């Protein structure tokens, strides 16, 4: 009996060490990312004061872009999304809506609003996809084309869009998103300005809930009303302003939001296009591109800038939030598992030695580690297996330091973009940044843990987040 | 239920023991408070809490300071805006200028910043702004910043560039970049050597802003220096400034500088020749976009350059150079152009043929002598050449459209028919094509059309309206023809509408993309 007790004690002690290392590693890297992003974003925002966008807007070298909007049952949001895309301030672009076999009125609303007519068109499936059914056009809106195809999933719809697009670059845009007028121009700026071959350029997603919109345009930026959405505002700020920016600066970009990003078409085709193996096709493609570049000895660059803004609707109910986070976690685990060769792979540099291990341990397995930590650390203390100091450190790292990082993200927003104009908004954001780690973080952690369990059971189900129409 | 009862009994039996265990652990915890780990943890906790509050304070203070700053700027601009507007219109008196000069240089910069942020200033306004900035001492300030804090006086156009280029940056690069931008916007030509020096700055942003400012200034003396830089960058002997920025800047110079490209166009390195040709092409097309009647007459470019274009670049071993030469040919007035162009239409490389056809499309009805060559491209093995040929024919007016219809009705090649059909359908006027079919007098068996949907033979394709045929045809031509034919039919309002739409149409409809 004593023997078994010893084993249990040792296992719990070992787990406590794992929990501690998770918190130290996670918070340590996030602190580094925050410091890096703070400087880089501050410099970037000042660069724009003299850099401007006119050079890009007027340059004959600015490449054309196709905005691909995959849509499946998006009748409430699609029209405004297309309107916002069509309003983009960019020299040459086309908007291509790929309807992935919607069963609602997605096509009808597009046809009615933009007076489209069904027309034939040539389709060459460079990347294999489900069959394309009909093309819709209106000569009066020459840069809009709507393509109807047999349902094959979001990656399939994106691949169909890639096959149809004729420009060297394409931009993914989710159907529930609204583009800011100059977002595309800002997104293409790092591609055109860089001497290296930039194959991916990502921008920031901001939460639309609470903003005043009209016809696909954000008229007034404001905070959402419910606590759940406000927590997500802080979370997005943290994730995009210093998470993605920081990884970009370190050269270890592993995630670029598929809701809004520009890709180099030929490179994506060479890398095989969007894969259906995972439920997060965007991350999968990024990792695939890293692998492709290393395997083929190509020098590619992936960029992230935090000033091209795309407004998106966040889940407003706990149920929808659960769907979203489970899917994200499942996709993360699937992608990391699929590309496990990258982990500590010598050829992959920062991505192999820092970014992938971090995402595997902190973002992937971390969900399970932290979730179980909330139970096992207090239990260990209760049973006398955990010193109180450890519990204190656990609380410090789990709650207090998380608050510090979230407040840091709000400060970064304040120092740079200041998109929430009212003083009251700033105070609300700061308050939610502190409160985020008490309750909301644990709730999201629970959904992430469920995602890990889904991955372990081999689930591939795509959980759709219904949009209530904040863009409408 | 019995299990729960047993568990309840067990708990009540051992309740005292459990309480004792908890008490002992609390005692242990209190005893262990002296443990150094706990001390460190508590200290860290306090630091983090203090840090969080510090961040909150900074955020709130920053917002407060920003509000104050914006109010100050707003008040400053409100007070002096009429004066600045008057000065820019050239109507300010000496007393009013003196009032402005009493402001600090920082305030003046803030006051004039909106003017410098404008895309383009009218010439008169620019001259007034130059005078104003010189009088207020802003030019000296910006030159000094551009020279990285050194005395700028010795670094204006009198001294040779490159003397102090590698000096270490001491001023904030943001300030310097803004100053360089302002010098460029002002077109203060005598500052060009400072800007050439800035091309060696360690900060790439400074290099890019300097390039843009050099292009905006357009000082002919700086062009040969840039050309040398281009050669070094293309050959890899220098890594800065960025090649794209350099090319874009050189393309921004006037055509009077084009002769300065000769060393690059004659360079033994094929990539340098290509870069030179690309710059020349962009220069020419920029001018052509402003003037529909534009030609490269001997007054604009040197005869040596014309000779080089006809006998050198059009026969270059680098196919990319030939492709660029093909695009330039259409602007030459030399009698040898036609034969050179025909050769380029039959080039061995598909993209040379494609660019040649696309270039001819710009000519409108004047491209009639090349009908045979373009018709040959309708049968080209490469689909993009065929597509370019279709577009070219449609741009040549009604006769060109007839050629396309004719080819559509006669060709046995399904892919070609599909391409033509797609372009016609994009215009939403298949009726015109249907009428052509009817005019051909055949039934659907005679017209080899296999639309993708399978069930729609040509006569059943959707017609866009019930307008009489001539109206449809005119509208068809108006919509698909991006230039020459507009003079035939459309009214003024629709022409304006088309001008806006034509830019949007270029991408999707497959007309020139920057690189192939």
Helix/strand layout:
The complex is a heterodimer of chains A (472) and B (516).
Chain A: H1 2-51, H2 54-58, E1 65-71, H3 78-86, E2 93-100, H4 106-114, E3 117-119, E4 132-137, E5 144-149, H5 154-164, E6 169-173, E7 177-179, H6 183-193, E8 198-207, E9 212-214, E10 217-220, H7 227-250, E11 260-264, H8 265-270, H9 281-295, E12 301-312, H10 318-338, H11 349-382, H12 388-415, H13 423-456
Parallel strand pairs in A: 1-2, 1-6, 2-5, 8-12
Antiparallel strand pairs in A: 3-4, 4-5, 6-11, 7-12, 8-11, 9-10
Helix pairs in contact in A: 1-7, 1-11, 1-12, 7-12, 7-13, 9-10, 10-11, 10-13, 11-12, 11-13, 12-13
Chain B: H1 2-31, H2 36-88, H3 94-101, H4 105-116, H5 123-136, H6 138-146, H7 173-186, H8 192-198, H9 204-217, H10 222-235, H11 243-251, H12 262-265, H13 270-290, H14 303-311, H15 319-329, H16 337-345, H17 350-361, H18 371-378, H19 383-395, H20 398-410, H21 414-426, H22 430-439, H23 469-480, H24 492-506
Q: Can you characterise this structure?
A:
The complex is a heterodimer of chains A (472) and B (516). By secondary structure, chain A is α/β, with parallel strands linked by helices. Chain A has helices at residues 2-51, 54-58, 78-86, 106-114, 154-164, 183-193, 227-250, 265-270, 281-295, 318-338, 349-382, 388-415, 423-456, and strands at residues 65-71, 93-100, 117-119, 132-137, 144-149, 169-173, 177-179, 198-207, 212-214, 217-220, 260-264, 301-312. Chain A has 13 helices and 12 strands. In chain A, the strands form 2 sheets. Chain A has a 10-stranded mixed sheet with strand order 3-4-5-2-1-6-11-8-12-7, sandwiched between helices. Chain A has a two-stranded antiparallel ribbon with strand order 9-10. In chain A, β9 and β10 form a beta hairpin. Chain B has a domain at 103-157 and 176-253. The chains are: A alpha/beta (472), B mainly alpha (516). The interface between A and B is large, with 69 and 77 residues.
